[in-house]
Automatic annotation (TrEMBL):
Primary enzyme class: transferase
Domain Glycosyl transferase family, residue spans: 478-651
Protein name, as recorded: Sucrose-phosphate synthase
Substrates-to-products reaction catalysed: beta-D-fructose 6-phosphate + UDP-alpha-D-glucose = sucrose 6(F)-phosphate + UDP + H(+)
Record carries keyword RNA-binding: no
Region described as Disordered: 96-149, 444-465
A Gene Ontology BP annotation from the UniProt entry: sucrose biosynthetic process
Pathway named in the protein's UniProt entry: Glycan biosynthesis; sucrose biosynthesis; sucrose from D-fructose 6-phosphate and UDP-alpha-D-glucose: step 1/2
InterPro entries, A to Z: Glyco_trans_1, HAD_sf, SPP-like_dom, SPS, SPS_C, SPS_pln, Sucrose_synth_GT-B1
Role, per record: Plays a role in photosynthetic sucrose synthesis by catalyzing the rate-limiting step of sucrose biosynthesis from UDP-glucose and fructose- 6-phosphate. Involved in the regulation of carbon partitioning in the leaves of plants. May regulate the synthesis of sucrose and therefore play a major role as a limiting factor in the export of photoassimilates out of the leaf. Plays a role for sucrose availability that is essential for plant growth and fiber elongation.
Keywords: Glycosyltransferase, Transferase
Description of how the protein assembles with itself and partners: Homodimer or homotetramer.
Length: 1060
C-alpha cells in the first residue's frame, strides 16, 4: 500500500479537474475550516465524502492515469485513494449516526424534564399559564425587540432625564475577560485568535460604563502577562481607561473614579498561553481577583460608603473562562452575576461533530471543549442575567444547554410576575443588548454627499497620503476603483478564502473593483500560528492562481487607530464592506462600516441578521455560496442608486448602536436584579473591636451573642417536610408512594434528641463562645483528605496536628477539618481519636454545605455538642437553593431509580441531611449514575445545585450550587479575613467528586501519596479528564512520599512552611 504522500499527490490531481468541484456548496467546508489547517486536499476529500460523484472521480482518474509512469503505479494509487475515501466516509457515517442518537436522547430528556417541572408547578397554575400564551411570549420578547424591529434610541431629552435620576447612585461594577491581550490603547486586534472582537468590546464597554451617570468605578479584570514575546504594557498591574471624548479625563469623570484595566497574575508567570490552557489556573485568578475586590471595596467604603465596604453591584463574565470565574466570585461575595458568552462551546461542538472528521474525544482533547461547556453551564446556574447580542444566539445556541430552556424560562418568568411559587426552579433572564459603538473618532460624511468626497475638510481628510492609505493603494493598478473591504483575522471561521475565490472567478467584479484584506498584523508567516499561517498561504495561492496582482491588497501591518481611516478610504471610493464569516456572533465591524457610510454584504448566519434589520444598509448572503457573494458585491458596486440608498440608510439608523444607549439598557437591567452583598449580623463585641486591626480581626476575641452565629445543630425540622406527602398522593403504585414517603422523613435532627420538643433556634447564645483568630494565624492547615475509612482519616488528622504542633518555630497556627461528613460524624471521629473541637478553628461539613465553629461550652447547647453553625454562611449560600422543589425531585428520582435497580439501592441519610444538604446512602456505587448525569437531570428541570459523591460513592450529597469546600475557604476570607495564601491544604491522590476544587488557587497543597486512590472509579466517567483542570508544575503543590509524620514534614519543608 502506498504511503500518504502518494494519496495526497493523487488527490491534488483530482482538485485540478476543473471548476465543477469549486462550485460545491457544502456546509461541511465550514466545519473543515473550523478545525484549521485548511488545505485543498482535505477540502476535496471532504467534498467526496459528503456527496460522492462517480463522474468527477472518473475524470480525475483519467487525468491522473495520464501522468502515471506505469500501470502498476496507477492501480496502486487508485486502490489507495478509493480505500482512503471509503474509510473516511464510513467513519463519518458512524459518527453522524452516534450524534443523531445522542441528539434524540437529549431531546427526549429535555421533554421529560420540562414535563416533570411543569407537573410540579401545575397545582397553582393560572388559567392563562397552563399553555404557552401569546402574552407570555410577547412579554418575553419585549426586552429586546418590538414589532420585529430593534427599539430605537430615546431622544436626548429622555436620555438626560434618565441620567438625572441615576446621578445619585454610585455603582461599582466588575467586568472579567481573561484570555487574549487587553489594553486600552493600540489594541493588537488580530494578533492571535484570542485577541479579537471580544477584547475591543470589553474595553469599550468598561470605558463607556465608567462615563455613565451613577457609575462610580468600573474594573475590567484580566490576566497579567509578563512574557518576552508580548509588549511590556500587558504586565502593568493597572491601566486607567480615559474617556475617549475628553482632553481632561478628571473633568469628564466628575465624581466618578472612572474605569480601569486590572491585571491579576495567574498561570505561567513568563508565558502567554492560549485560552484552552488557562483552565487549570482559573482558581488562582479567582483568589487574586477576590483579594482585589475586597481591598477596593473597603477603599471605596472610606470614600463614598461611610466606612462600610462598597461591594460590586454586579460581576460580569465574558466568555466561558471568565463566566466560570465570575460564578465563583459571585458565590464567594454573594453579589449578582451577569454573563455574556460571545461564542458558545456546544454550538462549536455540534459544528465539529457534523463534519464527522473527529470524534467527540478528539475534539475534547484539542479544544478542551467539555470543560468549556461545563463552565457555561455553571454560568447559567449562577447568572441573574445572560446578555446576548442577538435573538439568534438565544434561539439557536443557548437552547442547546441543559441549564436553559426558552419555554420553561417563559413559564417561570410568568409565575414570577404573578407572584406564584416556582417550586425552587430558577432560570437566568436572557436579554438582547446589541454592542455599542464609540462615534467620537468618526468624521460623518456630509449630507447629500453620495460619493463620499464631501467629508469634513480637515488635514487628515484632505491629505491623500495618510500612511495607511498609501500602504493599501500601493497594491493597486487602479486605486480609484471601488474598494471591497474585509476586516478580519486570518482565521478559517472568517471564510476569507471563499471571498477571494468569489472575487477571482467573477470577471465583471474584478473589472469594477479592488479587494482589500486587512488580516491583522504579521512580520513573518513562519512566525504565525499554524492555523492562521495556513489560511494566509491559501489566500496567497488563490491570488496567484487567479492572477489578482494589482487587484488585491493585503498589508502586513496596521494600527488600531488606522481602522477609521481604512473605512473612510473605502467609502471615498464608493466601496462596500463585507463580512463573509460562516457564523458571526454579532458583527461589530458591520456597525463601524455603516457609521463611515459603507454599505455592507454580510453572512446570514448570526448577528448580522439583526443588524441588517435595524440598519437596512446592504445585502445578506449564504457564506457557503460563492456565487451569491459575488452577485451581492457586484450589485452594490455597479448599481449606484442601490449603493447610495444603502449608505444613507446606514447613516440614518446608526444611532441605534450607540454606547450610551447600550449602557442605559445595561444599567437598567442591573438595577432590576435583587440586590445581594455580604451582610453580617455584627455583634456588639465585634463592633467594639473594629477599631483595632479590622472587623472580624479575631474570632476568639469576639464574644458571640449569636446575632450572627446562632447555636444550631442543623437538626431543625426541614421546613415543609410534610407538604410533599400530599403532592405525591396520586402516584399510581402504592409501593412507590411508600418509598417516597419513607424518603420524606429525611433528618429531623442531626442527632437523635438533640432538639427539645417545640424548641426553636435560640436568638442568643448565653455561652461565652470564643472563636478562632483566623486573621492572626501565620498558617492555617486544612485537612481535606478523602479517605477510604474513618479510621484512616482520624489517623491522618492526628499525624498532621502532631507534626505541625511540635514545631517550635511554626508560629500561631490553626486547623480546619474539611470533609463530606456531617457534624455528628465529625464529633464521633474527634471522640474516637481523642481530639477536642477546641483544637480546630472551623469545620467545613457536608462537602461544603455547612460551616461550624467550636464552642467554648456545650452546657447551653440544645444538642449538648460544642459546635455553633455559621448562619451567615447559610444565607451566603442560599442563592438558588431549591428547597422543597429540589427535594421533591430527588424523592421522585430515588423512587424511580429503586424501582428500576432494586429496592434499597438509594436511601435517605437522615443523620447527614441538614437545611442546606440533602444526603443519601448508596448501596452499590457501581449502578449509580455519574455526577454529570445527575447534574444534567437537575439543570434540565431548572433546579440549581451542586451534586457530590463521597466516601467512594457510597454517599450522595446535594448542596447549594455555589457551595463547596473550596468556596467555604473563600467565605472565611471574606467574612473573617483568613489569608488564603496562608492556607495549607492536605488532600489525597484522589478523593470525592469535588476533589479538583481543592487543588487550585493561591493556597498551598500537600498531596498525600497512596491516600484516596480507591476513589479513582468516581472520576472514570467525567465530562472532562482531571488533567484538563489540574495545574502542572505548580510550585504551591507538592506530593509527599507517603502519609507518615516524616513524609508530611518533608512536604511542608518543600513548601517552606517549616524549616528543614
Amino acid at each position: 500500500m502506498a504511503g500518504n504522500d502518494w494519496v495526497n499527490s493523487y488527490l491534488e490531481a483530482i482538485l485540478d479537474v476543473g471548476p465543477g468541484l469549486d462550485d460545491a456548496k457544502s456546509s461541511s467546508s465550514l466545519l473543515l475550516r473550523e478545525r484549521g489547517r485548511f488545505s485543498p486536499t482535505r477540502y476535496f476529500v471532504e467534498e467526496v465524502i459528503t456527496r460522492y460523484d462517480e463522474t468527477d472521480l472518473h475524470r480525475s482518474w483519467v487525468r491522473a492515469a495520464a501522468t502515471a509512469r506505469s500501470a502498476e503505479e496507477r492501480n496502486t494509487r487508485l486502490e489507495n485513494m478509493c480505500w482512503r475515501i471509503w474509510n473516511l466516509a464510513r467513519k463519518k457515517k458512524q459518527l453522524e449516526g452516534e450524534e443523531a442518537q445522542r441528539t434524540a436522547r437529549r431531546r427526549d430528556e429535555r421533554e421529560r424534564g420540562r414535563r416533570e417541572a411543569t407537573e410540579d408547578m401545575s397545582e397553582d397554575l393560572s388559567e392563562g399559564e397552563s399553555r404557552d400564551t401569546v402574552g407570555d411570549i410577547s412579554a418575553h420578547n419585549s426586552d429586546s425587540t418590538r414589532g420585529g424591529r430593534m427599539r430605537r434610541i430615546n431622544s436626548t431629552d429622555v436620555m438626560e432625564n434618565w441620567a438625572a435620576h441615576q446621578k445619585e447612585k454610585k455603582f461599582y461594577i466588575v467586568l472579567i475577560s481573561l484570555h487574549g491581550l487587553i489594553r486600552g490603547e493600540n489594541m493588537e486586534l488580530g494578533r492571535d485568535s484570542d485577541t479579537g472582537g471580544q477584547v475591543k468590546y470589553v474595553v469599550e464597554l468598561a470605558r463607556a460604563l465608567g462615563s455613565m451617570p451613577g457609575v462610580y468605578r468600573v474594573d475590567l479584570l484580566t490576566r497579567q502577562v509578563s512574557a518576552p514575546d508580548v509588549d511590556w504594557s500587558y504586565g502593568e498591574p493597572t491601566e486607567m481607561l480615559n474617556p475617549v471624548n475628553s482632553e481632561n479625563p478628571q473633568e469628564e469623570l466628575g465624581e466618578s473614579t472612572g474605569a480601569y484595566i486590572v491585571r491579576i497574575p495567574f498561570g505561567p508567570k513568563d508565558k502567554y498561553i492560549p485560552k484552552e490552557l488557562l483552565w487549570p489556573h482559573i482558581p488562582e485568578f479567582v483568589d487574586g481577583a477576590l483579594n482585589h475586590i475586597i481591598q477596593l471595596s473597603k477603599a471605596l467604603g472610606e470614600q463614598i460608603g461611610g466606612g462600610e465596604p462598597v461591594w460590586p453591584v454586579a460581576i460580569h463574565g465574558h466568555y466561558a473562562d471568565a463566566g466560570d470565574s465570575a460564578a465563583l466570585l459571585s458565590g464567594a461575595l454573594n453579589v449578582p452575576m451577569l454573563f455574556t458568552g460571545h461564542s458558545l462551546g456546544r454550538d462549536k461542538l455540534e459544528q465539529l461533530l457534523k463534519q464527522g472528521r473527529q470524534s467527540r474525544e478528539e475534539i475534547n482533547t484539542t479544544y478542551k471543549i467539555m470543560r468549556r461547556i461545563e463552565a457555561e453551564e455553571l454560568s447559567l446556574d449562577a447568572s441573574e442575567i445572560v446578555i446576548t447580542s442577538t435573538r439568534q444566539e438565544i434561539d439557536s445556541q443557548w437552547r442547546l444547554y441543559d441549564g436553559f430552556d426558552p419555554i420553561l424560562e417563559r413559564k417561570l418568568r410568568a409565575r414570577i410576575k404573578r407572584g406564584v411559587s416556582c417550586h425552587g426552579r430558577f432560570m437566568p433572564r436572557t436579554v438582547v443588548i446589541p454592542p455599542g459603538m464609540e462615534f467620537h473618532h468618526i468624521i460623518p460624511p456630509a449630507d447629500g454627499d453620495a460619493d463620499g468626497e464631501g467629508e469634513r475638510n480637515d488635514d487628515s481628510t484632505a491629505n491623500p497620503d495618510l500612511p495607511i492609505w498609501s500602504e493599501i493603494m500601493r497594491f493597486f493598478t487602479n486605486p480609484r476603483k471601488p474598494m471591497i473591504l474585509a476586516l478580519a483575522r486570518a482565521d478559517p471561521k472568517k471564510n476569507i478564502t471563499t471571498l477571494v475565490k468569489a472575487f477571482g472567478e467573477c470577471r465583471p467584479l474584478r473589472d469594477l473593483s479592488n479587494l482589500t484584506l486587512i488580516m491583522g498584523n504579521r512580520d513573518d508567516i513562519d512566525e504565525m500560528s499554524s492555523t492562521n499561517a495556513s489560511v494566509l498561504l491559501s489566500i496567497l495561492k488563490l491570488i496567484d492562481r487567479y492572477d489578482l496582482y494589482g487587484h488585491v491588497a493585503y498589508p502586513k501591518h496596521h494600527k488600531q487607530s488606522d481602522v477609521p481611516d481604512i473605512y473612510r478610504l473605502a467609502a471615498k471610493t464608493k466601496g462596500v464592506f463585507i463580512n463573509p464569516a460562516f457564523i458571526e456572533p454579532f458583527g461589530l465591524t458591520l456597525i463601524e462600516a455603516a457609521a463611515h457610510g459603507l454599505p455592507i454584504v454580510a453572512t446570514k448566519n448570526g448577528g448580522p441578521v439583526d443588524i441588517h434589520r435595524a440598519l437596512d444598509n446592504g445585502l445578506l448572503v449564504d457564506p457557503h455560496d460563492q456565487q451569491s457573494i459575488a452577485d451581492a458585491l457586484l450589485n452594490l458596486v455597479s448599481d449606484k442608486h442601490l449603493w447610495a440608498r444603502c449608505r444613507q440608510n446606514g447613516l440614518k439608523n446608526i444611532h441605534l448602536f450607540s454606547w450610551p444607549e447600550h449602557c442605559k439598557t445595561y444599567l437598567s437591567r442591573i438595577t432590576s436584579c435583587k440586590p445581594r452583598q455580604p451582610q453580617w449580623r455584627r455583634t456588639a463585641a465585634e463592633i467594639d473591636s473594629s477599631g483595632s486591626d479590622s472587623p472580624g480581626d479575631s474570632l476568639r476575641d469576639i464574644q458571640d451573642i449569636s446575632l450572627n452565629l446562632k447555636l444550631s445543630l442543623d437538626g431543625e425540622k426541614i421546613e415543609g417536610a410534610g407538604s410533599l406527602d400530599n403532592a405525591l398522593d396520586n402516584d399510581a403504585a402504592e409501593g412507590k408512594v411508600k418509598e417516597e414517603n419513607a424518603v420524606l422523613t429525611m433528618s429531623k435532627g442531626v442527632l437523635e434528641g438533640c432538639l427539645k420538643a417545640g424548641a426553636t433556634e435560640k436568638e442568643e447564645n448565653t455561652g461565652a463562645g470564643k472563636f478562632p483568630a483566623l486573621r492572626k494565624r501565620k498558617h492555617v492547615f486544612v485537612i481535606a483528605v478523602d479517605c477510604d475509612t474513618t479510621s484512616e482519616f482520624s489517623e491522618i488528622v492526628e499525624k498532621v496536628i502532631e507534626t505541625v504542633s511540635k514545631e517550635k518555630d511554626a508560629g500561631p497556627i490553626g486547623f480546619i477539618l474539611s470533609t463530606a461528613y456531617p457534624i455528628s460524624e465529625i464529633q464521633s471521629l474527634l471522640v474516637s481519636g481523642g481530639l477536642s473541637p477546641s483544637q480546630f478553628d472551623g469545620f467545613i461539613c457536608s462537602s461544603g454545605g455547612e460551616l461550624y465553629y467550636p464552642a467554648s461550652s456545650s452546657e447551653d447547647s440544645p444538642s449538648g455538642l460544642p459546635f455553633v453553625v455559621d448562619l451567615d454562611y447559610r444565607s451566603h449560600t442560599e442563592y438558588r437553593w431549591g428547597g422543597d422543589g429540589l427535594r421533591k425531585t430527588l424523592v421522585r428520582w430515588v423512587a424511580s431509580f429503586n424501582e428500576k435497580k432494586g429496592d434499597g439501592q438509594v436511601a435517605a441519610d437522615e443523620s447527614g441531611t441538614t437545611k442546606h444538604c440533602y444526603a443519601f446512602i448508596v448501596k452499590d456505587p457501581a449502578v449509580i449514575p455519574p455526577v454529570k448525569e445527575l447534574r444534567k437531570m437537575m439543570r434540565i428541570q431548572a433546579l440549581r445545585c451542586n451534586v457530590v459523591y463521597s466516601q467512594n460513592g457510597t454517599r450522595l450529597k446535594v448542596i447549594p450550587v455555589l457551595a463547596s469546600r473550596s468556596q467555604a475557604l473563600r467565605y472565611l476570607y471574606v467574612r473573617w479575613g483568613l489569608d488564603l495564601s496562608n492556607i495549607v491544604t492536605f488532600v489525597g491522590e484522589l478523593g470525592d467528586t469535588d476533589y479538583e476544587g481543592l487543588l487550585g488557587g493561591v493556597h498551598k497543597t500537600v498531596i498525600l501519596k497512596g491516600v484516596g486512590t480507591s476513589a479513582r472509579k468516581l472520576h472514570a466517567n467525567r465530562n472532562f479528564p482531571l488533567e484538563h483542570v489540574l495545574p502542572v508544575d505548580n510550585p504551591n503543590v507538592v506530593q509527599s512520599e507517603g502519609s507518615s509524620d516524616k513524609d508530611i514534614r518533608a512536604s511542608l519543608v518543600k513548601l517552606r512552611i517549616l524549616k528543614g
